[in-house]
Design a protein that fits this description.
The protein is mainly α. It contains seven helices and no strands. The N terminus is likely disordered.
């Protein structure tokens, strides 16, 4: 394994790198906008005695979008909550079969979430948000689009997921090493 592969659980293709990079930058941009908006609104409210009327609504919708769009990125690093005590006690072959089952259930659940999420967003499209007066379906689209992104990340990582390998960032590895010591 070369130094450039350290921390990588599999080889990324060009398309995968683009998806991951775009996904990360969209999440980062949304978080920057949300943080800036909340900060500016607090300053305006408590120092200038006026409030940006749409800031709270936009911040709430951005938070929902960030949560759903970042779920696939969290999957890549093994950061979702998981109870692995049972599968860790299983023999290697049974552990892999258990992870296949978990992955298949995850694929099924995300597929259902995608279909129902698009149906719900479509159903709510004719309603408007209270302040922004945009279609209510736009915030609701975070659910199916986030589920679709998580599914795409899972397909990219399927083999590594089954083998129990994740792209753990160095900062998380340091935390794990400190806990073991």
């Amino acid at each position: 394994m070369s130094e450039t592969d350290v921390g990588k659980s599999h080889r990324e293709g060009a398309f995968e790198r683009v998806v991951v990079t775009v996904n990360r930058w969209v999440v980062i941009a949304m978080m920057v906008v949300m943080t800036t908006l909340v900060f500016v609104n607090v300053i305006c409210r408590y120092i200038l005695n006026f409030s940006i009327i749409w800031a709270e609504e936009v911040s709430q919708y951005l938070m929902v979008w960030v949560a759903f769009l970042a779920a696939g990125l969290a999957l890549r690093e093994g950061r979702h909550v998981a109870i692995e005590m049972l599968q860790d006690r299983l023999p290697s072959r049974a552990r892999r079969m258990m992870r296949h089952l978990v992955a298949m259930l995850l694929i099924l659940f995300m597929g259902i979430l995608i279909v129902l999420g698009f149906q719900f967003a479509s159903f709510a499209w004719d309603q408007e948000t209270p302040v922004l007066n945009i279609p209510l379906g736009i915030p609701y689209l975070a659910v199916p689009i986030g589920a679709l992104l998580l599914l795409i990340h899972l397909f990219f990582l399927y083999r590594a997921y089954i083998d129990g390998r994740y792209d753990v960032p160095e900062s998380l590895e340091a935390e794990i090493d400190e806990e073991v010591l």
